Amino acid sequence: MSERSYAKKYILEELEKKDWRPSAIRSFVRGLKDLKRTNVPDYERARVALFFSARMYKTSISSILAKNRVGRNSWARQMISYYFYEKGVHEDYIAEWIGLDRTTVYRHWKKLSGEIEAGFKPTIKEVEKFKTLMEL
Fold this sequence. Notes:
This protein is mainly α and 136 residues long. The protein has helices at 3-17, 22-37, 43-56, 61-65, 71-86, 91-98, 102-117, 121-134.
């Protein structure tokens, strides 16, 4: 599914709900904005990211999607959040894919970018490894 068709599908689903609460309207407007500006990869790309991060951190996809705080699962979620945020995907989509809040996705990106800017070699190495896997 292309990014444009995904955004259209999202907008149509929101219209069918006929939910006129302010939060629902904000969500609908966000979908309209995404239709013209956001790079939204399909769910298949998100599944690939989950698979690679699970392999990279020696864990399972279900563990990554669980809301536990085990180090390797949390690193995998941070890596997925960072990678897609850097690619220009909206936080709401990333959050939906990995079962987090959108502000958590932003914090993951902020944390990893800060470590990269500071020159923290283990983080830089992990990010480069994940980017290489994703771009195969």
